[in-house]
């Protein structure tokens, strides 16, 4: 029999459990996929990572650096690129925990898992720009602003981009 008291106890237990849930923060305690989940403007990119079976990689020990395009930037890429699966998405992932100062210390160039390079090409300190390049070559293609750099994760770093890293 369900009584008011049993409903209160059950409801109180649910309330207590929901209070124990820790919100995802950007202080390095949560994995990349969880941090991407806090950024509403990268939901399409995060969904693409899941469809390409890269979620376990980016929830694993890493470390990785992810250059995540916003939904608007992701939508601006070709359908062929968006549907390219893991091969296309590796253009946005580098090995290592690379904050902007770390990239600058490497001569402004980072090798992505796809084999292309991501190169810091200027901009301002508040809005640096990054561009894709064939391995060892000069940057080519459109550049993108880093809108939100250095989002710390337990297994790496996320940088939110206003464009996509696709070499010409």
From TrEMBL:
SMART domains: FAS1
One GO cellular component term noted in the UniProt record for this chain: extracellular matrix
Highest taxon listed in the record's lineage: Bacteria
UniProt-listed Pfam families: Fasciclin
GO molecular function, one term: cell adhesion molecule binding
Residue ranges annotated for the FAS1 domain, each copy included: 29-165
Record-linked PROSITE patterns: FAS1, PROKAR_LIPOPROTEIN
GO biological process, one term: cell adhesion
PANTHER family: FI19380P1, PERIOSTIN-RELATED
Protein name: Fasciclin domain-containing protein
Top-level taxonomy: Bacteria, Pseudomonadati, Pseudomonadota, Alphaproteobacteria, Acetobacterales
